[in-house]
Amino acid sequence: MNTSPILLEVKNLKKYFPIQRGLLKRVVGHVRAVDGVSFAIRQGETLGLVGESGCGKTTVGRLILRGIEPTAGQVFYRRDGELTELTKVPRRRMKPFRRDMQIIFQDPFSSLNPRMTVLDIVSEPLRIHGAASSDEMKVRVRELLEQVGLRVQHMNRYPYAFSGGQRQRIGIARALALKPKFIVCDEPVSALDVSIQAQVLNLLHDLQKDLGLTYLFISHDLSVVEHVSDRVAVMYLGDIVELSPSEELYATPRHPYTEALLSAVPSSDPDVRIKRIVLPGDVPSPSKPPAGCKFHPRCHYAVDLCSSEVPTWRELGAGHWTACHLADQLKLAGIANT
Ligand code: SF4
Q: Does ligand 1 come within 6 angstroms of the Cβ of 299?
């Protein structure tokens, strides 16, 4: 169990996007993209954040990095031994935090400027932060390219000359340039071929070990998250519905939505056949979320109470949290860890 100090804490984080109509752009409602999310990540830990597309997980990443401002809630980050409320730091004082907190994007094709060489791309954060002279920059870029498994001779090439996996390595080198402590990995392998995914995941794992990094690993794919996360948080319609140590979540899920997601994970054992749970209907609109448990219109186990009362977020075992009225009664199917 990781007993290191908490590096990042998110408390009751909300992001509601206004829906505007008409010439006067009158606000007629809100899309509740993130609807009161709380979690903490310890130093050196990887927290996986999973859910279907549109559940709010990428918005959580952007809120943490202050790419967008929250509607409510707090984000705390530990720097120089002290937890600071990031959401209260004036933008002009964010620079030291921005050095510490970086992001790896999903799409290695659109996230790299095609007109810039690898040298320019990887050294860009150093330039913006005035963190190195031009000679130092070259030395640092060389070091970074070696660290991510790319050839130093390629630093004057343009992104088009590289494969998807190599481009993602360039993106990782750029994220590491300022020696960050915390990285949001936003679907970092979902645009890559399956054969390349494992190489990039192994690289992220090795970098974490060597550099003591802490990750928030966002993905829609539970089979990817399983291999990289110490704990996993499952999101549905702007809420976290389950949070647990990774192994336990896969073996004994306690929320019906997690069970349904797990049933879609292909088994590595050809003799094991998992019965796929097909959820009825579509994900409801985050602008009009259902009353009570937001999952109740699609839940196979729903009872009357589920449509009227919001389930309490509670701890069922050491570090295993969920929000389901029936969590104590249901025996849900997990999958054996591979
Ligand atoms: Fe299903 Fe009810 Fe649990 Fe929600 S609270 S997940 S509807 S059983």
A: yes
CA 201, 206, 211, 212 torsion-angle sign = positive
DSSP 171: H
- The pLDDT of residue 264 is 86
CB of 64 within 8 A of CB of 101? yes
Cα distance between residue 187 and residue 288, in whole Å: 27
Q: Do you know the residue count of the chain? A: 338
pTM over 0.70: yes
Residue ranges of the domains in the chain? Answer: 252-338
The verdict on the CB of residue 279 being under 6 Å from ligand 1 is: no
Closest C-alpha residue for ligand 1 atom 8: 302
Task: Tell me the C-alpha distance between 63 and 186, whole Å.
Answer: 13
| Percentage with pLDDT > 70 across the chain | 97
Over range 163-174, report the average pLDDT.
Answer: 94
| Cα-to-centroid distance, 226 and ligand 1 (Å) | 24
- Residue 336: its pLDDT value, please? 63
Determine the Cα angle at 169 with ends 164 and 170, to 5°. 95
For the stretch 88-146, pLDDT in tens is 999 999 999 999 999 998 877 788 999 999 999 999 999 999 888 888 899 999 999 99
324 lines ligand 1 (CB under 6 A): yes
CA-closest candidate to residue 58, choices 228, 184, 241, 246: 184
Q: Is 255:323 a contact under the CB 8 Å cutoff? A: yes
Q: Is 306 in the pocket of ligand 1 (CB under 6 A)?
A: yes
b/e burial code for range 150-160 (CB count within 10 A of at least 16 → b): beeebbebbbe
Token pair for residue 107? Answer: 């799409």
Q: Is the CB of 132 under 6 A from ligand 1?
A: no
Q: 15 CB less than 6 Å from ligand 1?
A: no
CA nearest ligand 1 atom 3, residue: 324
The candidate with the shortest Cα–Cα distance to 327, out of 259, 236, 230, is 259
